[in-house]
Amino acid sequence: MIFPEFKWWIYMGQEPGQLVTINDELKFALLAKIDDRSASVGVVGLGYVGLPFAVEKAKAGFQVTGIDQNEVKAAQVNRGENYIRDVEDEELREVVKSGQLHAVSTFDTVSELDVLVIAVPTPLTHNLIPDLTYIESVARELATRIRPGQLISLESTTYPGTTEDVLLPMLEKSGLVANRDFFLAYSPERVDPGNRTFGTKNTNKVVGGVGPGSLEVAMHFYKAAILDVVPVSSTKTAELVKVFENTFRAVNIALVNELAMLCDRMDLDVWEALDAAFTKPFGIMPFYPGPGVGGHCIPLDPHYLEWKAKEYNFNTRFITLAGEINRKMPEFVATKAYRCLNTLGIAPSLAKVLVLGLSYKKDLDDDRESPAYDVIRNLWKEGVTVKYHDDYVPIATHPEFDLQSEPLTSDLLQDTDLVIITTSHTTVDYQFVVDHSRLVLDTRYATKNVARGKEKIIRL
Ligand SMILES: NC(=O)c1ccc[n+]([C@@H]2O[C@H](COP(=O)([O-])OP(=O)(O)OC[C@H]3O[C@@H](n4cnc5c(N)ncnc54)[C@H](O)[C@@H]3O)[C@@H](O)[C@H]2O)c1
Asked: Which is deepest, 105, 201, 251, 353, by most CB within 10 Å?
């Protein structure tokens, strides 16, 4: 392989006034390793994002090391045991068996890797402030171990500026300079858990780099296993793209949630209205109301942008309002549940309610930030006895909730005053639920196709 000899000078944004040279030798060496798949890839964080990504990269021919501080997960991966539904069991087994993927729970081998992708959590504190402790902890581990010629790419969702203002200075404590000695990029993960049409490979990916060398290397790396890669001019822009995408969803969900509350007052069926509205072939996009928003994205990510905007004395009013409306939904559902119980002449403190669905989204086992928990919390406040059923979440993982899924039997339904459908898993027979229930409050339109017992169904 012949490497061009020339070097060029560029201005680096992270150190005002500093001029650095792109080390072409390092760059072309890494590009070549990516091309012939001899580049070894480390994926830090083997969760909903990291594990599917690691499998995809292993399938593309890279030698992949998963690094997760959770020893149980690392051991599961090494046994070929899958714990993420978006990953095919057989695919994981195959890449582990063939030696393309293995997992460790320490950072000891970082210097042996050519590419490091970081996919660790980015939660919010109780006061809706970004919590970057996971990213910072990884950065500290990497700073003592990185070597020239590596690409480091952050994939965790975060506010614009994290890569350049937080990660970069921590990594440069190693004495290495980004875009000269190592390459640093931000490329947001867009995985949509449970989506059978769009997975890691066929969902296009946005990439921003710290300097042109970083962008070039990162583009090359992502193109190796993803069909379409979209470059942007900076890591800040790439970070903004991701938080905007989820803000777009949060705001539109809030809009239909607000409409649902208005329809309740006006005694109109919001679902019928939306079904009709979404027949328009242009200028509209389907979003549906529900008991609130959950998961690791929609309830959190917009507040990363909201927090950052305050630094610029700017209030992101749509984000604030959407958060308020979406967080209000569980309380609204509980209030509607009391009205349902009232029609049966049952006081909340004497009522037995079954919450049907604990995960935040249908056909998924992820109950992080699930609004179903807030619905239960609200019901508990009024003394309601609550049980839940969810085959995807056999035991409630939230520390405040000592609950286990009850088998969905006719006896359970008959012994319940009100069923609240909080997640519309397609595995549930909703006709069976309605047949054996006294009353059903459907917050997800799961009973749309139920033929008998419509008089027992009350919709959000
Ligand atoms: N879940 C989604 O649908 C989704 C979609 C797009 C983007 N994201 C973003 O991707 C990031 C990761 O989310 P996730 O859902 O995969 O989280 P997750 O909790 O499923 O996985 C994170 C993993 O990181 C590990 N980890 C935490 N700290 C670590 C450390 N210091 N060193 C090594 N491993 C560590 C955890 O043990 C865990 O296995 C978040 O920023 C999230 O916002 C998530």
From this structure: 353
Q: Do the beta carbons of residue 292 and residue 443 sit within 8 Å?
A: no
Query: What is d(CA 349, CA 82) in angstroms, rounded to the nearest whole number?
Result: 42
Pairing of strands 9-11, 19-21: antiparallel
| Ligand 1 and 50: CB distance under 6 A | yes
Q: Check pocket membership of 194 for ligand 1, CB cut-off 6 A.
A: no
Q: Is the pLDDT assigned to residue 16 strictly greater than 60?
A: no
Q: What are phi and psi of 353, to 5 degrees?
A: -120, 140
In one-letter notation, the amino acid at residue 46 is: L
- Asked if residue 156 has its Cβ within 6 Å of ligand 1, the reply is yes
CATH, domain 249-459, list 3.30.70.20, 3.30.70.1450, 1.10.3720.10, 3.40.50.720: 3.40.50.720
pLDDT over 70 at 418, yes or no: yes
Say which residue the tokens 């991966």 belong to. Answer: 77
CATH number of the domain at 9-233, please?
Answer: 3.40.50.720
Q: Distances in Å between the alpha carbon of 425 and those of 270, 343, 402, 435, 446?
A: 21, 27, 22, 18, 8
Give catalytic status of residue 263 as yes or no: no
Kindly state the average pLDDT of the residues 90-111. Answer: 97
Per-residue pLDDT band for 126 (boundaries 50, 70, 90) equals confident
- Residue 389 clears pLDDT 50, i.e. is over it: yes
Check for a shared fold between 9-233 and 249-459: yes
95 within 8 A of 58, measured Cβ to Cβ = yes
Cα-to-centroid distance, 423 and ligand 1 (Å): 23
% pLDDT > 90, the chain: 89
Residue 164 DSSP code: I
pLDDT at 20: 63
Q: CB–CB of 199/191 below 8 Å?
A: yes
The pLDDT of residue 225: 85
pTM of the model: 0.91
Q: Is the pLDDT of residue 383 over 70?
A: yes
What pLDDT score was predicted for residue 14?
Answer: 43
Give pLDDT tens digits for 240-250: 999 999 999 99
Say if residues 383 and 308 touch (Cβ distance below 8 Å): no
DSSP 3-state assignment of 67? strand
